[in-house]
Amino acid sequence: MIARALKRATLALLLGLIAGWFVTLRPVLAERDAVGARVHALDQRLEAHRRTSAGLADQRERLGAMRNAIRQHPMRLPDRPDESGLIGRITALTADSAIRLVDIAPGGTGESPRYRHRDITVRMEGPWDALMRLLARIDETTRAVALTGLELDRAKNGDGRRWLTLGLHLRGYWQPGPTDNIATTAGNGDSGWILTAGAVEAHTVAPSLRRDPFHPATRVTRVERRDIAYLGRITRGDAQWALIRDADGQLHRRRTGDPVPGLGRLTRIRPRAITVESAVSDGSDRRHIVRRHSNTDGRGD
Fold first, then answer.
1. What is the C-alpha separation between 1 and 11, in angstroms, rounded?
2. Residue 105 domain flag
3. Are 53 and 140 within one domain?
4. Known Pfam families for this protein (predicted)?
5. Whose CA is closest to 264, among 225, 216, 293, 218?
6. Which among 6, 22, 81, 96 is placed 20 to 30 Å from 131, CA to CA?
């Protein structure tokens, strides 16, 4: 009996202890569950922030590339003048070609509400093709620089060479101070008036600029002969026009100095004939007299 009573008392005590543990641990367990839920929510927020951070890094990289492209764009004005860079570029280009640099004269500085500019005059001597090549290379390797004047004449060197004297009036523009936060970034300075990339080879000079106008070509440029008819002239006050019909039947009204289809340039208008000078480059006298068409009225007007 005593042993059975002790056994019952022990079981009752164990059950009481277990019940007490559950009662005591219930708030802790509830708090643990709540903390677990908060941890899960924080994990989700952390993952979202990581994705956002990765997207921001990609956007920063793209923004940096855009800033660099805008800063180096030829149409964007630099934030400071670059006279030394421009002079150095011209000096280097003339040193690489058959051109002699005569003089470089800095000019005045102008100012407007949005930008400033500085003038530079460069004088050089050389053959025609080398000078045209130099102009092309200056245009392709500089930015914010405009050609405001050009003087071309025969060089007075007296050594028999067919050299020309070229005077360039250049104007460089800049905009002092950034207008926004994309003007300058650390480690990436403004390139001034010189493009950081790109070079021009000799063959990029346009074919129309390769012939020296001071020395006529040896070949004769022949014009295509076409049948035209002089129908008469139109007068209005002191002005007069020649009425011409080309081989295709099209009517043209031309004044003195205008081109005539297939022949050249109209030099004289008379009641019964017109005089046309052919477009030849050998300096010879090629004039054509086109009589008035026989089926028109002979009065001349």
1. 15
2. yes
3. no
4. PilO
5. 225
6. 81
Residues of the chain with pLDDT below 70 are 71-75, 156-161, 177-191, 196-227, 279-285, 294-301
Residue 45 per-residue DSSP state: H
Cα angle at 7 between 5 and 8, to 5 degrees?
Answer: 65
Which residues lie closer than 8 Å to 111 by C-beta, 6 or more apart?
117
Structure tokens at 89: 């570029």
d(C-alpha 155, C-alpha 207), whole Å = 23
- Residue 297 forms part of a structural domain: no
Average pLDDT of the chain is 77
Instruction: Give per-residue burial for 96-132: e unless 16+ CB within 10 Å, then b.
Output: ebebebeebeeeeeeeeeeebbbbbbbebbbbbbbbb
Q: Show Cβ contacts of residue 65 under 8 Å, excluding neighbours closer than 6 positions.
A: none
Residue 183 included in any domain? no
Q: Report pTM.
A: 0.45
CB of 148 within 8 A of CB of 28? no
User: What whole-number distance in Å separates Cα of residue 56 and Cα of residue 22?
Assistant: 49
The pair of structure tokens assigned to 275 is: 């005089």
